[in-house]
């Protein structure tokens, strides 16, 4: 019989909190069971295992992140929308490092297709890029450029890897300027 008050939702939220506090790699079923003062086996009533828990964390964090991004870009266009998108992305990555790490795992196609949050992520991201006049296959390439730029900057910033005395905000703003110019001048290619 399930322990009173223990649900999959509570477990996933607690796992996300644990990831932010101790690091994504330190989220285990044992650590989570200790939080709830239950035996590890009790968790299997609610999640199928660590892989299932991590997938659920990714979906939770992805939904939280896109909610922030969508709110930030609402009513904005062009460079203003790009800067708002990037700023919300960076804020989430830096303030929720464990949750953010969960968003970086590869999910199977069925999970992606079935997730309203991940579909919304695609809609918001592709909407931003369509405003630059991009269509496939350029959309996919531009999404990859933005994601790798934002992720790389956030990963280096959170690790304290930027050693030059230049202000991080100034460098971030210049990166957004450069990405905006790149998107405006994207070399268009027809789909194969």
TrEMBL record:
The keyword Protein transport does not apply. It comes from the Bacteria. The keyword Transit peptide does not apply. InterPro entries: Homeodomain-like_sf, HTH_TetR, MT1864/Rv1816-like_C, Tet_transcr_reg_TetR-rel_C_sf. Pfam families: TetR_C_33, TetR_N. Residues 28-47 bind DNA. This is WHG domain-containing protein. It comes from Streptomyces griseoincarnatus.
